[in-house]
Amino acid sequence: xxxxxxxxxxxxxxxxxxxxxxxxxxxxxxxxxxxxxxxxxxxxxxxxxxxxxxxxxxxxxxxxxxxxxxxxxxxxxxxxxxxxxxxxxxxxxxxxxxxxxxxxxxxxxxxxxxxxxxxxxxxxxxxxxxxxxxxxxxxxxx
Length: 142
Hints:
The longest helix has 17 residues, at 58-74. The chain has a 6-stranded antiparallel beta sheet, covered by helices on one side. The chain is α+β, with helices and mostly antiparallel strands. The chain has helices at residues 5-9, 58-74; strands spanning 23-28, 32-38, 83-94, 103-114, 117-126, 129-141. The radius of gyration is 14 Å and the shape is globular. It has one domain (5-141): Hotdog Thioesterase (Thiol Ester Dehydrase, Chain A, Roll).
């Protein structure tokens, strides 16, 4: 299943300037998905990170991955209208800088969901090269 950004906005509450998914190119609710973030040179965070050598902040790469995870979860009718809150990030590793003009491919897989808490693994790629990997955990709320 593919989703446009408008369809993503119908699932998760994030909005500009804090929505970091432009489209979903794969989606299997409650299991896995792949989102795309087109990293535009005019992104506001590039103004200060870093002047003259813009690099997408690692924390925003992880946020992008988490948003893909939220779409995977909240696209299922049992979780529609809820919010997924971060409860943890572990084993985060940054392998490659993400630069203006890059297309960030965001892979996330939910590995466990139980009693309002969940866990997942996530990887971000640029041109087929691993840029970031992490494990995430979250709580589901209203």
